[in-house]
Amino acid sequence: xxxxxxxxxxxxxxxxxxxxxxxxxxxxxxxxxxxxxxxxxxxxxxxxxxxxxxxxxxxxxxxxxxxxxxxxxxxxxxxxxxxxxxxxxxxxxxxxxxxxxxxxxxxxxxxxxxxxxxxxxxxxxxxxxxxxxxxxxxxxxxxxxxxxxxxxxxxxxxxxxxxxxxxxxxxxxxxxxxxxxxxxxxxxxxxxxxxxxxxxxxxxxxxxxxxxxxxxxxxxxxxxxxxxxxxxxxxxxxxxxxxxxxxxxxxxxxxxxxxxxxxxxxxxxxxxxxxxxxxxxxxxxxxxxxxxxxxxxxxxxxxxxxxxxxxxxxxxxxxxxxxxxxxxxxxxxxxxxxxxxxxxxxxxxxxxxxxxxxxxxxxxxxxxxxxxxxxxxxxxxxxxxxxxxxxxxxxxxxxxxxxxxxxxxxxxxxxxxxxxxxxxxxxxxxxxxxxxxxxxxxxxxxxxxxxxxxxxxxxxxxxxxxxxxxxxxxxxxxxxxxxxxxxxxxxxxxxxxxxxxxxxxxxxxxxx
Amino acid sequence: xxxxxxxxxxxxxxxxxxxxxxxxxxxxxxxxxxxxxxxxxxxxxxxxxxxxxxxxxxxxxxxxxxxxxxxxxxxxxxxxxxxxxxxxxxxxxxxxxxxxxxxxxxxxxxxxxxxxxxxxxxxxxxxxxxxxxxxxxxxxxxxx
Lengths: 512, 144
Prior knowledge:
heterodimer; A: Glutaredoxin; Rossmann fold; Ubiquitin-like (UB roll); 4 domains; five-stranded mixed sheet; 16 strands; B: alpha+beta; 2 domains; four-stranded mixed sheet; 7 helices; elongated
């Protein structure tokens, strides 16, 4: 009888891990369900004595056991995809049973919380500031500064809210962390609660993640005595993408429509139920136990510029070796896509890479040298967001993707502000007219005698494109939150780098 | 609505008494129990939480997860977000609709968090990855 380790991550299960696990159990072997290593193209990945086999199917069991299987990848920890990473937040990935308190304690668990309790709240916040940790949800705001603001606010009740409404396409690091290492998130929240004087925490998880919800609920129940008097509760979203925006999330937690609130006041002062509230992403909170246990400097030693520490990057879409790749900031996009990711799954050339989810810009292979860094991306009108990377091959229609961005914004808009609610609809119509080569003629109002200043000629294709740029400008600066404000990034980047997909002539500026 | 259904609602509302912001958890339970949130349920919940019926209706209609009428057929949620598009989900849609033939409802979902192994789908809380034409067809026919 051998001990077989197979992930019970939702992705592994979707790829058939339960069936493979059952086949090993049937053959009389002990099966341990552990977290996922993050080598997703190899799931279901079977681990026996440190050696990996994948992707495995129930029919491969006999061959894996007798050593004749061609699926072997050698020692998992030595695999280049794993060996080259710098896993701080995902240090336990693949190594522990997700809800085992024993495994968590044996792998340095609860050390960060113990240290925080030892040095006190104020010193804890200083550590978080010194680590240089910035919000991993996308905005990149310094986590420690947010904590200090909440700590300084006076109120009868404060809250720690974990934003686990991971709605961006190509992102799954929050899901993997919650499913694979739920105690790490709970410990991070307990440290935050201790540091700022909050006794109550909520984890707002999207309803599309039932496996994560189940794991968290079990982990919260089992670890309640360890984090007391801090108390954590899971709340489930209801399929609204915009609830990933922090103020919309707070409204949703309060039982209201997930509409965005105008800022100020900031949630750190007037947040959940009007009380001072820390709203942090899963990855921000999960980075805290490492920082507290190993010291702020150990974390800050990684990274570049003002982007300190590591980022769990998610490689997805049309990519050969997709999965979770945690590494220090500064790695180039080309290395991520071509060397680590192995290029496209289809084997065709890479056409575009979207970084940062549905609101992130499409980057051209000519921009592959850009380092993974908040400021470097902002400088080219792009964003790293939550660290999701979607690769497209040369069959992608970038005008179609731009249209999709507008359509997605229209479907998911909360409706509170006009540029997002109406602008996205008009944007989709505009792109449709551009693609149909059917510029709009004069409408009824424009033909009225009073409108003698209106243009008499119908719009040209160029007019429509100028109008689209103008609309994007309005949405970018006029929207209340990132949904309407960032939708122009994918649209404008598609238009800039692939004008031919819109039927426009490549201008000298765009060809630079 | 018959009396027994209202008493079921009573139990659901009581289960969440004392929680902060109980409306979403209540609506999730009602949706899970009855398959939809009916007009009567909205009125009952509004009364129990001291909200207006319009407040509750506004919340129910805002979120994609809550239905105001029961789903007529089994639902398969097919991910249509960018990563699954990059992996070819759009090419599967026409055949999937044909296979569903009105016996299964195919709804779009925007991301299941399985973005490197798409196209992906979800039925209830079960997730399915690496779908191609035949696999999706079998999945749909298994539901119909």
